[in-house]
Amino acid sequence: IDELLKASATNDAPIWKDIAERLAKPKSLYAEVNVSKIQRYAKEGETIIVPGKVLGGGKITKAVTVAALSFSETAKRKIAEAGGRCITIKELVEANPSGSGIRIMA
């Protein structure tokens, strides 16, 4: 959370502050998103961030990059089979410090 707040201030990127605030809440309030929701709302090639866990319910056919706190094994496999990537939130901050072009899914 501290790293996200620092990245937000350093890079003038409000998205990281938003994610930090969501992760500062109790774990029971973390987002749980199925791959079917990512399939429904994401565009091909888009970068998605989930402030919580990605679950493997449903199908996904779009090649998207998904950053999350954690992934179920099924979700990792389905995203990889669709040509997408699973990364940590920290890796996303390092790769895209400005936070541009990222969709929050919760």
Segments where pLDDT lies below 50 for 5+ residues? Answer: none
Give the mean pLDDT: 96
Shape: globular
What is the total tally of β strands?
Answer: 5
Count of discrete alpha- or pi-helical segments spanning 4 or more residues: 5
Q: What's the Cα radius of gyration?
A: 13 Å
Task: Note the gap between the termini.
Answer: 17 Å
Order of helices and strands: HHEHEEHEHE
Could you characterize what this model shows?
The chain has helices at residues 2-11, 14-23, 35-41, 73-81, 89-95, and strands spanning 31-34, 47-55, 65-71, 85-88, 102-104. The chain is an alpha/beta fold and 106 residues long. β3 (65-71), α4 and β4 (85-88) form a beta-alpha-beta unit. The longest helix is centred in the first third of the chain and has 10 residues, at 2-11. It is globular and about 35 Å long.
Output the keywords.
5 helices; alpha/beta; 41% helix; 5-stranded parallel β-sheet; 106 residues; 5 strands
How would the blueprint of this fold be written?
Blueprint: H1 2-11, H2 14-23, E1 31-34, H3 35-41, E2 47-55, E3 65-71, H4 73-81, E4 85-88, H5 89-95, E5 102-104
Parallel strand pairs: 1-2, 2-3, 2-5, 3-4
Helix pairs in contact: 1-2
